[in-house]
Amino acid sequence: MQPDLLKFLGFQAQRHLRGALRRPGDIVNPLVFFLMVVTLFPLGLGPDPDVLADLAPGIVWVVALLSSLLVSGRLFQSDFEDGTLEQLALAPHPLALSVLAEIASHWLLSGVVLALVSPVFALMLNMPGQAIPVLMASLLLGTLCLSLFGAIGAALTVGLRRGGVLLSLLIIPLTVPVLIFGTSAVREAVLGYDPGSWLALLGALSLVGLVVAPIAAAAGLRISLEA
Amino acid sequence: MTQLLKLQDVGLERGVRQLFTGVQLEVAAGELWQLVGSNGSGKTSLLRAVAGLARLGVQGSITCCPSMLFQGHLPGLKSALTCRENLLWHASGGVAIPLSGIDHALAEVGLVGYEDTVLGQLSAGQQRRVGLARLWLSKASLWLLDEPFTAIDVDGSAMLEQQLLRHCQNGGAVVFTSHQPTAVAGLRVLDLNQYAA
């Protein structure tokens, strides 16, 4: 890759990260949402530690999916509204690579942060200790998939005034395998089996997403800019 | 004379309405063009079509040199970043601009002392000026500017006119839209109302 292109991608990632860090609310909000929902489950299901431990993998994963849907829908919103997207589309560098830089920065601030704090949520739900590293690994890979697939939907709906419902309809079918592989990995670990194959499937999905999503999202953005 | 932009029989359809048809335009190096026309006559759409952002509903052929700078209605700047960061990390590829060049450009648009100020704290006119500072950094030969004089004061407009002229003298070309009558030597005018369908 040309050094020029690498430098440009570095600049784009820096622009995204620095901007997001100056508005920490955007990073903290999904975590607060996560915390609230996880606290509600023992209230709804009753505080029996065994029941909670049984349901914990599913609960954590479903909430992770929902909070990811909440934030990834707005992935390109501010760039679209302030004209950054126009300039990216006209830059001499491939739009797909700029999109990849944007998704990667987004994942660092949402998915990676979520995976890092997930042990706290797991302990709140009485998940056995041996499953926690697997939970973190599955969330790391899984949120990357969710960010990548979410970017495709976000790119297609960025120009629409009320794209929220359409976005969910477009994205949820793509996220179902991620949910199944993720919860299965954690459940296997809770039962003391080897979760390796499920994690490998999540890894494979991320690789497919890494190749396909930037190209698809770039094409979607160009369509959205036509309007 | 190097030709930087050529429009042959260009028309534009927006939904079911034909905005204009048969626009012919050749822009050579050194030329300064103003696009005029009433509101809704398609000035912005024409510029976006030329830049390659929106080619839906465009008829005819547009040949545009690849070395091009486009500044639309939207600033393309981030309100959470400082003036300096906005130009250094600009989405159009601010690569290889030394920081001293950025400070120089900000000084040219009258923003000395605001280099490290977050864009969101500046006034609307000052924010426009940050966007226009790109004109002092750009190496592109063809500039497409949509309403560059909006929200800019009298001094700023004079300074901007000077910069547009300087770019043309250095072998570039400028196409801009504006409702203000601009009194600049050598200005050519394309009136889209004449091509209204």
Structural notes for this entry:
The complex is a heterodimer of chains A (227) and B (197). Chain A is mostly helical and 227 residues long. Chain A has one domain. Helix content of chain A is 84%, strand content 0%. Chain A contains nine helices and no strands. In chain A, α7 packs antiparallel against α8 (164-190). Chain A is elongated, with a radius of gyration of 18 Å. Chain A starts with a helix and ends with a helix. Chain B folds into two domains: 3-67 and 141-195, 3-Layer(aba) Sandwich (Rossmann fold), CATH 3.40.50.300; 83-130, no CATH class. The longest helix of chain B is centred in the last third of the chain and has 16 residues, at 154-169. Chain B contains five helices and eight strands. The model of chain B has no long low-confidence stretch (mean pLDDT 89). In chain B, a hairpin with a 2-residue loop joins β1 (3-14) and β2. Chain B has helices at residues 43-51, 83-88, 99-108, 124-132, 154-169, and strands at residues 3-14, 17-28, 32-36, 58-64, 68-71, 142-146, 173-177, 187-191. Chain B has a five-stranded parallel beta sheet, with helices on both faces. A three-stranded antiparallel beta sheet of chain B has the order 2-1-4, with helices on one face. Chain B is of the alpha/beta class.
